[in-house]
Structures are given as structure tokens and as C-alpha cells.
UniProtKB/TrEMBL annotation:
PANTHER family: PROTEIN PHOSPHATASE. This is Stp1/IreP family PP2C-type Ser/Thr phosphatase. It holds the Pfam family PP2C_2. Coiled coil: none annotated. InterPro entries: PP2C (IPR015655), PPM-type-like_dom_sf (IPR036457), PPM-type_phosphatase-like_dom (IPR001932). CDD domains: PP2Cc. Residues 2-242 form the PPM-type phosphatase domain. It comes from the Bacteria.
Length: 250
């Protein structure tokens, strides 16, 4: 397994409110996280950093994630716990009122990958079948697409594109999508904030991931392209590649 995480402020925002990383637990399994914070007075970075810190502490102390069921239960339990912590902080600190964060997180082993998401940070899978988005955006525009009210093309330029229907830390209870996929040698998992997916299309993502560059170079190319196309938002991504080559492993 090889993996890389990169984040960039972009060309317009004064601060980076995204957070994330690739964490290894006692069993050698990886947890990749991308969280895109939101809220006024820079509270977005508080929400995303709280999410990362809590999950990091729990993951590094954890062991025994042996099955897909274990992974799904771990993500559900820990993200639910983070939701309560972020909400409590927002309600007890006036400067953080209304803050929240998206999250897409993946536990990867040499047999499977389990992905959880809330909001519009995305997960993509590149395998022998091609390149496709494997998470569902929890956004107003995606709901309009899903119910046939607008086309996918219309959604790209919709004025309410950034309106989320779900976020972490904004309600007492939160629904998340969790799924497990077979993760085989040669497969690549990409997690990213909408700072990437709103700017770089799937064909461009796939071409970069299929290039001969190493993972660091691929991540840098994706971020550079998002910035080239305007870079109005923070850009954060994690790439995990199932490979039997140990050189450069993270």
C-alpha cells in the first residue's frame, strides 16, 4: 500500500479550513481523512481540525479492525462521537456558532476499503472497470439531480451548488453513508474536498492518476490544475494505491 496526502490554501482564500491526513494504527491499517470546514470567523478550521484530532487519537490507539464489519462499526461510532464534540464546542463558543465540516474517510486494508462520508467531499475509485465517484454528495443540487429536476450538467453551474443537506457537527444526530468495496492490487482510491472536484473533471483526474508520475507528483498535479482553473477554494486530497511495491510507502 502506498499513500499520499496534500492540502493547499488555493489562490483566493486567506486561510485553509480543510484538514486531513493518512494515519496508521497498531495493525498497520490506514485511515485516510479529508475534512472541509465551514463557518464564519474562521470556525471552519476549528471544526475540521477537531475532527482530525479526535479521529487521529482514536485510530492510533485502535487495533483489531480485522473485517469490513469492524471497519464500518468503527467509522460509524467514531464519527458519531466527533459529531457530538463539534456540536458541543459550537454551542459553547459563540465565535464558533454554526460551524461544521464535511468528511470523507476511508479505512484501507490489503483486502478491502471502507468509506464513510457526510457532505460533499468525495471518494473516487480507479480500477480495471474505469474511474468513478463512489460517494454520494449530500447537497441540495445533487438531490435535484437525483430526483430528475435538473441535469448533471446543469448542476455544475447551479447558483446553490454549495448548499449542503448534511454536515458534521451541525445537528445532534447525523446520517452518514458507509460502504465497503473490494480493494485489489492496482486499484487507486482518491479522497478530496470540493476545492478539487469543483474544478477538475473526472477525465482529468483519471489521466493524472494513470500517469507514470509517483503519488506525490500526481497529488501535486491535481492541486496545480485546480489552482490553474481558479483555485477559489482550499484544495485537499488523499491518494491510496494498492501496490506490492514497498518503496515510498506511507
Amino acid at each position: 500500500m502506498k499513500a499520499v496526502f496534500q492540502t493547499d490554501r488555493g489562490k483566493v482564500r486567506l486561510h485553509n479550513e480543510d484538514a486531513g491526513g493518512i494515519l496508521i494504527n497498531q495493525d498497520g491499517n490506514r485511515l485516510a481523512i479529508v475534512a472541509d470546514g465551514m463557518g464564519g470567523h474562521r470556525a471552519g478550521d476549528v471544526a475540521s481540525e477537531m475532527t482530525l484530532t479526535q479521529l487521529k487519537n482514536e485510530w492510533e490507539a485502535s487495533g483489531g479492525v480485522l473485517t469490513a464489519g469492524d471497519a464500518e462499526n468503527w467509522l460509524k461510532d467514531q464519527i458519531t462521537k466527533v459529531n457530538s464534540l463539534v456540536l458541543e464546542h459550537a454551542t459553547t463558543h459563540t465565535e464558533c456558532d454554526g460551524m461544521g465540516t464535511t468528511i470523507v474517510a476511508a479505512i484501507t486494508t490489503d483486502r478491502f476499503a471502507t468509506i464513510a462520508n457526510i457532505g460533499d467531499s468525495r471518494g473516487y475509485l480507479l480500477n480495471e472497470s474505469g474511474f468513478k465517484q463512489i460517494t454520494e454528495d449530500h447537497s441540495l443540487v445533487n438531490e435535484l439531480v437525483r430526483t430528475g429536476q435538473i441535469s448533471k450538467e446543469d448542476a455544475e453551474h447551479h447558483p446553490r451548488k454549495n448548499v449542503l443537506l448534511r454536515a458534521l457537527g451541525t445537528e445532534k444526530t447525523v446520517e452518514m453513508d458507509i460502504k465497503t468495496i473490494i480493494f485489489e492490487e492496482g486499484d487507486v482510491l482518491l479522497l478530496c474536498s470540493d476545492g478539487l472536484s469543483n474544478k477538475v473533471n473526472e477525465t482529468e483526474m483519471m489521466e493524472i492518476l494513470l500517469s507514470e508520475n509517483n503519488l506525490d507528483q500526481k497529488a501535486g498535479s491535481l492541486i496545480s490544475l485546480a489552482n490553474e482553473y481558479g483555485g477559489e477554494d482550499n484544495i485537499t486530497l488523499a491518494i491510496i494505491e494498492f501496490s506490492d511495491v514497498s518503496e515510498g510507502d506511507v
